[in-house]
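User: I'm new to structure prediction. If I give you an amino acid sequence, what do you actually give back? Let's try with this one:
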Amino acid sequence: MQIIRRPTQRGNKLPLPTALTIGNFDGVHRGHRALLEAVCKRARNDRMLASLMTFWPHPKQYFASPNTPIPARICGRRDQWEAIAGCGIDQLFALRFDHKLATCSAERFIEDYLVRAIGVRHLVVGDDFRFGAKRQGDFDLLERAGRRYGYSVESMQTVLHEQQRVSSSQVREALMLGRFDQVLALLGRPYSISGHVIHGRKLGRELGFPTLNLRIDGEQAPLKGIFVVRVCGLDSGCERCLPAVASLGTRPAVEHAGRYLLEVHVLDWSGQAYGRMVKVEFLKKLRDEAHYPSLEALKAQIAIDTSHARAFFTPCP
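Assistant: Good question. You get back a string of structure tokens that encode the predicted 3D arrangement of the chain. For your 317 residues, that looks like this:
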């Protein structure tokens, strides 16, 4: 998948015919995937490039006042873009949402970005899609402009789960509540976080539970606590995922106001993984983060968490 950050600055090179969808696609849930599948199908049938335009940071974050709480991103850019590429998208237009975009009228956005820079021939959007300064652009405007510029527009119906619209907000809430069965149903895959293994304080090793440390990409994830997980990417040339227990958050057990970190203890595994890219899949929440009066108390709790993780992976007789 090609990533293009400044589509309006590609010189005199003419854009190739493109089937496009637009949105933030946080989480790349089943509703997003339906849009992407529609774009890819149309692109393959008509020999166009399957493309997605997305924005970073989220427009809500750009317009928010300093005291306004911003919902955590479901996934960082790395995980988001990997999921998008896995759907078959050829081009990702990753636009920085700044003053220029925030004040761009809907009509100017269509002409400058969709038509001239991207070469859109078919556009697929959700049934609630709005765009342009003050969100003045809508499906009707896209259709009228399409007749003028020679592109077609398709509106996708809402994807439902248990009679409710599948949305990023719904996924975020399920993650916060630790409802991973619901998360799986909404995403169509296990929720995961990927990152490079970095050096930590080595405290887990001292306690007898060595951990892989992953710094979270971008904004904080919408969940904290202790979890049963699987780790993929530790075995070179093998897609096997290993059972593990993980801590995600600011580590109140060992420090105050700590940075957001993912620590993973892989069951019955030892080896060097520094610098390796791994993916951690979340399967069950065991408990919230907590502070402990001593390292011995912390060690005892980690042993309990590890025991619960082993039980999760042990087949019933």
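You can read the tokens as a compact description of the fold. Here is one thing that stands out. The chain has a mean pLDDT of 88.
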